[in-house]
């Protein structure tokens, strides 16, 4: 199905496309079972606007999110458009990253069982699977400080992220940042697979750790297995087609 570009609300076509992609992303996460009741967040910067981003309405399930009911807020927490409140925990964390990282176009935070389990172990993500090897040396870790509602914690979140694009909040769950929503999505998908495999492997006994020299070769060559369109583009578009066949109301 062709992507609907004509806005159904008062906004630019670029913003409407961002709304469509973000709404689709929420439905894809719901399809995978990555939602957490009405909590957790995926956000996307509004194209062509400084310091404005889109986030889910607080109180709706991911299966209820659509392009037109996403809330548009600025990095100071002011609602620019939308008829729903925004969860303060989502605003505080996402706004800080959007404010200070000009490349972070899309950000997600999840509470999946497997990712939370991995974040709650001392070793974090171990180099014991194909997917886990993608991320070795590329994840920052941040100690748990309670629910993320205090702006001053943002400084430590940013410092612990460093030059990485994934921040594992210990005892809590991952934050995945991407230059595009497609890149963020495929990284979140691969990270979730790595966590699922780790939980399953550790339940079987002592895991086999991949040597660092093999990890280096794997990370050097992994881009050769990438589909056309840039990181995650083909993956994301394929899943958009899938959810369109299930329920296309995310386009509303």
TrEMBL record:
It holds the Pfam family Aldolase_II. GO terms for cellular component: cytoskeleton. Gene3D superfamilies: Class II aldolase/adducin N-terminal domain. Coiled coil: none annotated. SUPFAM superfamilies: AraD/HMP-PK domain-like. One of its GO terms (molecular function) is actin filament binding. Residues 20-199 form the Class II aldolase/adducin N-terminal domain. Belongs to the aldolase class II family. PANTHER family: ADDUCIN, PROTEIN HU-LI TAI SHAO. This is Class II aldolase/adducin family protein. It comes from Pelagerythrobacter rhizovicinus. The lineage of its organism: Bacteria, Pseudomonadati, Pseudomonadota, Alphaproteobacteria, Sphingomonadales.
């Amino acid at each position: 199905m062709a992507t609907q570009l004509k806005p159904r609300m008062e906004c630019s076509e670029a913003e409407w496309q961002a709304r469509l992609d973000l709404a689709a992303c929420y439905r894809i996460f719901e399809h995978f079972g990555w939602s957490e009741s009405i909590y957790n967040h995926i956000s996307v910067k509004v194209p062509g606007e400084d310091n404005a981003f889109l986030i889910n309405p607080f109180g709706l399930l991911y299966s209820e999110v659509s392009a037109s009911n996403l809330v548009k807020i600025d990095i100071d927490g002011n609602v620019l458009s939308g008829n729903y409140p925004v969860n303060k925990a989502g605003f505080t964390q996402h706004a800080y990253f959007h404010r200070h990282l000009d490349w972070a176009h899309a950000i997600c935070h999840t509470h999946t069982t497997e990712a939370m389990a991995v974040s709650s172990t001392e070793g974090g993500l171990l180099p014991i699977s194909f997917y886990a090897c993608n991320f070795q040396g590329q994840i920052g870790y941040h100690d748990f400080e309670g629910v993320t509602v205090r702006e001053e914690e943002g400084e430590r979140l940013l410092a612990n992220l460093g030059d990485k694009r994934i921040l594992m909040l210990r005892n809590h769950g991952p934050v995945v940042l991407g230059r595009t929503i497609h890149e963020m999505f495929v990284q979140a998908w691969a990270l979730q697979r790595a966590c699922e495999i780790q939980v399953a492997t550790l339940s079987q006994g002592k895991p086999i750790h991949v040597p660092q020299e093999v990890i280096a070769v794997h990370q050097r060559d992994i881009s050769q297995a990438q589909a056309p369109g840039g990181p995650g583009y083909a993956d994301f578009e394929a899943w958009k087609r899938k959810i369109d066949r299930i329920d296309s109301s995310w386009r509303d």
